[in-house]
What does this fold into?
Amino acid sequence: MKSDSFRFGRFTLDVESRLLCRDGAALDVSSRYFDALVLLVRNAGGLVPKDKFMDDVWRGVPVTDEALTQCIRSLRRALDDDAARPSFIETVPKHGYRFIAAVVVGDAMPAARLAIASKSDWRRFWALGGAGIVGGGVAGLLGGVFYGFSGGFQGMGGASIVLVLTALTVLIALIGAAGVSFGMAAAGLFKSGYGAFTILGGAAGGFVIGGIVKLLGLDAFHLLLGQSPAHITGALEGAVLGGAVGLGLWLGSRTPPTQTLLCRMLPAAAMGAVAGVAIPVAGGQLLGGSLNALAEVLPQSRLRLDQIGALFGESGFGPISQMATGGLEGILFAACMTGAILLAERQLTE
It folds into this structure.
């Protein structure tokens, strides 16, 4: 890719005039470091090995690896980039560096991200998507134990009911987490870092999976039992919760990496709680409400969530119970997924 002009983010790089500008204002970059940036941008999305820098930038002048490290450090400072959460220059440990931002060549309109579908992109896609599923599974396990003991542990056979409810909750959480996490990871193929695309990706993934699960669930109940609940969680609930996870992940990623993982999970927990409470307030259902709706159409079922309602002075699983359990579900789902993804992100950057 040969050109004399590039744009990425707030920056323009004019090779012929040897100018790097941010919002139209020229930045002071040494000649050799400017050449290194040109090399990176011209190979956007591809790995630039250390030897390539030595050949094209230092042109055979013997220097140590520290000189290259200092060069990249200075370029990141000029671009306001963060090595731990890069938006422009990504380190490929022991090999070299990669320019990961969307680059527009010359006067072309922003269209395709040049770094899309690189090996690093796909490695990050699968790693973060898989981590989100693991986090969702942990949330499902905790939530399943809670619902199992709250609504199923009654007399003989209670332990088996707890086991069945826990397994069911884990399965539902894994499916939901797969949609949300891979939705967010797919957004990362088109836009590096976290932001609005992350929120939209999480919402889109939750919407699709929620709609599919609801459709298949209602069809299965009709086929096997001849009836189904009037309303269970579905596409809209999935979109709201998925968007909350994306927002929580974005906020957590902006927390300084020096903070503990728990501190970085707190914004996601807060966003999940808000979404979990808002859904039943707006007339939607999360898992607790769906389980209660299922129990109501199956009078012979031993599943009852009335014990939860009793804690809030309700005669059954009423609106306060639904808001409380919805908030708990949102906290667990968003916090566990965010924590797992941030851990995976840390492993990718080390």
Notes: The CA atoms of residues 1 and 43 lie 7 Å apart.
